[in-house]
Design a protein that fits this description.
Blueprint lengths: L1 E6 L6 H12 L10 E5 L7 H16 L5 E6 L5
Antiparallel strand pairs: 1-2, 1-3
Length: about 80
């Protein structure tokens, strides 16, 4: 599964602001850059629902700060 963690609107993103400024200086017509972290998590689960529940728990316990972060979860089956 893939878990992407990004800042909620209204929180400062100094890394994104720096990237935006530098890309503009290099001639790219970017409006804004937002930095996020992507976690690729491989785990065993009996169902997609169980995998999402475990991912939600991981985010709440470790991967995301509920005060400033939002996250999305994408479950992909391994073959």
């Amino acid at each position: 599964m893939r878990i992407a963690v990004a800042l909620k609107p209204g929180h400062s993103d100094p890394e994104g602001e720096t990237a935006t400024r530098l890309l503009k200086e290099l001639g790219y017509k970017v409006e804004t850059v937002n930095v996020s972290k992507v976690y690729n998590v491989f785990l065993e689960a009996r169902s997609r629902k169980e995998a999402v529940m475990k991912a939600e728990e991981m985010c709440k316990r470790l991967l995301a700060n509920p005060t400033k972060d939002k996250y999305t979860i994408v479950v992909e089956e391994q073959k």
